[in-house]
Every structure is written in structure tokens, then in C-alpha cells.
Automatic annotation (TrEMBL):
Domain of life, source organism: Bacteria
Compartments it resides in: Cell membrane
Protein name: MFS transporter
Membrane topology label: Multi-pass membrane protein
TM region positions: 40-61, 82-108, 166-185, 215-237, 249-272, 284-303, 309-328, 349-370, 376-394
């Protein structure tokens, strides 16, 4: 049936809600993991593998998910992805053994893995290029907000009904979002055609060209390093607060949420500044804020004062999520809409490999250190430094990619 074109800001709101539910579905696991560990009698190292199993499937689907979004459209891919991850959220609550839990979480990641690239492509379809950094950072600020809300949502729900029923309740939210996308999200054809026309000489660029572009791999490494920090920090912070800082479940949920509220504000501010103030200087912003985030993370686990530790957590997250906005502003400003899904999938593949590695490595480091989290946090600090150093090697990123596209168009 014919439908009136939905406002781009309505679409942005729906995408934002979709990401919130995405993060609720995956991040409540971090709050539930100490209790799942107690029920299944699992060590910290084994719990790290459970946390990482999701990211194995999630990472595997990043590049295929981007390709599917470019081929079949962002709307279809988002709907199917959300429906699948909702089913596996439900099944998480029904897990009967460690093996079942690992398989369910792996399939959960595969189901959810197409959503990031599809949502970035939807932004490119809905907004003119001059507005994409703000729109993308607004949408992705939901990442930090979802992490912030998850402990506040999960802790009281789990206290009332247990971790199994909590996952079943959350599964329903995903199905609601899939329906919203089905009803309201449509590509803005005129915008797509205008961008395609502006990039007519460059439209021959394909996935193979991206794979041959050094700048793209540097962006992958930068995002890999930063996501090592973000996923390690968010996955283990609730357990750290409960086991090392000795906070009660509800209090740990509140304290664990505060850094990610700061991250939400940081991403919204970062997106605005990337479009208005730091145009052409995004890599320098990313380098500075990542190093500041690493410094405050170091200060967090060095202090014995819980109030100071909470302040350092907030400052660390603020700067790290500012780096999130800076890194993701680059591909949206450089690349044509036609291959945005593939490019986003390629970059996010690096991030989700990090998501697979980081919780697992931290779990092994915590176990090897006899329950100490210091070595695990040093692992995160080193990853942030690697990301910042990689950023220093980015030279004339726009020129390099445009030359690659032009060269492809001439062949």
C-alpha cells in the first residue's frame, strides 16, 4: 500500500531505539554473568569465553552483513536481524548447560551482526553528506546509552524475577522494534539518487577496492583498538564493582551506568563538533581523546577511594566515546552511499573481533592474577595506545580513498 515518506528524523529516532534494544539485549549479559557463573559453577576464564562467544558470531557477520545491506537494502536486513536476535535473547533465558549457552550466544551474535552496517547505510540513505556525522553519532550514542541503561534495567528486573525470565522479557522489545522498522523506515529515494549522481564518476568502487585500500585497514585497526577498551570495560565493569569494590548488586548497577551516560553525552557532542569544528582534523581528535581515556582508566584502578574511582570511570568513558564519534565520522564523510554498508561492515568487523577477544582475554588475565583486575585493565590501556598510534599514520585519508575510487572508475 502507498505510504507517505517518513521524516528522516523519525527514522533516526527508530534507529536510535533499535540500537538501544540491541545493547540491552547483549549488555544485560554482563550484569547477569556473575549469577550465571554461580548457577553453572563457572570460573572467570570460562565466563570470559561465554561473553566472547557472542562476538565470534557477531564479528563473522559484519562484512557479509554490509554486503547484504548494499545488495538487498538496509530495511530488510535490519528487520531480519532484529527478529533473529530477539529469538536468541529468549533462548538465552532457556539455556540448560554451558554448551547450550555457548551455542545460543554464538547464534545470537550471527543474528545481530548485520544490524550495524545496515543502520549506517540507512543513515547514508536518509541524510545529506553534510549531516551524516551528526546523524551517525546521534544514532550511535545509543551504544553508550544502552550500556548505561542495561545495569539499571537488568539489576532490579533480575532481583525480582531472576536472570532467565529477564532475558525473556527483553526479547519482546526487539520484536516491537522490527515492526517499527517495517512500518516506518523507507529509503529516501531522492537522497540516494542525488548522492549517487554526485559520485557518478566514483560509483565503480566495490568491496574488493576497499580491501586494497590501506586507509581502510588503518580505520579497522583504530576501531579494533578502541573497541578492545570499550567492550572489555563494559563487559567486566559490573563484576569489578561487585567483586573488587564490594558493591551490592543494585549499587553496582547504578555506578556501572554512570560512565556510559557520560559516553552518551560525549558522542552527541562529538558528532556536532566533527561536523562544525573539527572538519579535516578528526584523526587528531581521536588520538588525543583516546590517550586521555586510557589515562583516566589507569587512575580508576589505582585509587582505593570508590568516589574517586567512579569519577575516573566517568572521565575515561567520556573521552573514549568521543573517540568513537571521531573515528566513525571519517568513512561517512569520505565514501559514497553505494558502498557504505560494505565499508561500515569492514570497519565494524575489526571492532567485533575486539569484542570477541577482549572479554575472554580479560577473564584469563583475572584468573591468572588470582582475581586481580589490574593486569586486565593494563591490557585495555595498551589497546587504546595502539589505536592512537595507528591514527598517527593516517595521511590524507580522503585523498587516498578518492584516488582509489577514481582509479576503479577508469578501469
Amino acid at each position: 500500500m502507498p505510504q507517505r515518506m517518513t521524516s528522516k528524523y523519525t527514522v533516526l529516532t527508530i534507529l536510535f531505539i533499535g540500537w538501544i534494544v540491541d545493547y540491552l539485549d547483549r549488555m544485560v549479559m554482563s550484569v547477569a554473568i556473575p549469577f550465571i557463573g554461580a548457577d553453572f559453577h563457572l570460573s572467570a576464564a570460562t565466563l570470559g569465553i561465554v561473553l566472547s562467544s557472542f562476538f565470534a558470531g557477531y564479528a563473522l557477520m559484519q562484512i557479509p552483513g554490509g554486503w547484504l545491506s548494499d545488495k538487498f537494502g538496509s530495511r530488510k536486513v535490519m528487520m531480519i536481524s532484529i527478529a533473529l536476535w530477539s529469538v536468541f535473547t529468549l533462548l538465552t533465558g532457556l539455556a540448560w548447560s554451558l554448551a547450550a549457552l555457548l551455542v545460543i550466544r554464538l547464534l545470537f551474535g550471527i543474528g545481530e551482526g548485520s544490524f550495524p552496517a545496515a543502520s549506517s547505510k540507512a543513515i547514508a540513505e536518509q541524510f545529506p553528506q553534510a549531516e551524516t556525522a551528526r546523524a551517525e553519532s546521534t544514532m550511535l550514542s545509543s551504544n553508550a546509552l544502552g550500556v548505561a541503561i542495561a545495569p539499571l534495567f537488568a539489576a532490579p528486573l533480575m532481583a525480582v524475577m531472576g536472570w532467565r525470565n529477564m532475558f525473556m522479557v527483553i526479547a519482546v522489545l526487539g520484536l516491537v522494534v522490527a515492526w517499527l522498522i517495517y512500518v516506518y523506515v523507507r529509503p529516501r529515494t531522492n537522497n540516494v539518487q542525488a548522492v549517487a549522481s554526485a559520485n557518478a564518476a566514483k560509483s565503480k568502487m566495490r568491496m574488493r577496492d576497499l580491501m586494497k585500500t590501506p586507509t581502510m585497514w588503518k580505520l579497522v585497526i583504530m576501531w579494533f583498538g578502541l573497541d578492545i577498551v570499550l567492550w572489555g570495560f563494559s563487559s567486566w565493569l559490573p563484576s569489578y564493582l561487585i567483586k573488587v569494590r564490594h558493591l551490592h548488586l543494585i549499587n553496582a548497577g547504578i555506578v556501572a551506568s554512570l560512565p556510559f551516560f557520560a559516553g552518551t553525552i560525549s558522542m552527541l557532542l562529538g558528532g556536532w563538533l566533527m561536523d562544525r569544528v573539527f572538519v579535516g582534523r578528526e584523526k587528531y581528535v581521536a588520538i588525543v581523546v583516546e590517550l586521555l581515556g586510557a589515562f583516566f582508566l589507569f587512575m580508576m584502578f589505582q585509587t582505593s577511594n570508590i568516589t574517586e574511582a567512579s569519577i575516573y570511570q566517568i572521565l575515561s568513558a567520556f573521552f573514549l566515546y568521543f573517540g568513537f564519534a571521531a573515528i566513525w565520522s571519517l568513512p561517512l564523510k569520505i565514501l559514497p552511499v553505494e558502498i557504505m554498508g560494505s565499508a561500515a561492515g569492514m570497519i565494524n568487523f575489526g571492532g567485533q573481533v575486539a569484542g570477541f577477544i577482549s572479554p575472554m582475554v580479560m577473564g584469563f588475565l583475572i584468573s591468572a592474577s588470582g582475581g586481580s583486575y589490574s593486569t586486565a585493565f593494563w591490557f585495555l590501556i595498551i589497546a587504546a595506545i595502539v589505536s592512537a598510534i595507528t591514527g598517527l599514520t593516517l595521511t590524507n585519508a580522503k585523498g587516498m580513498l578518492e584516488a582509489k575510487v577514481a582509479g576503479s572508475a577508469e578501469v
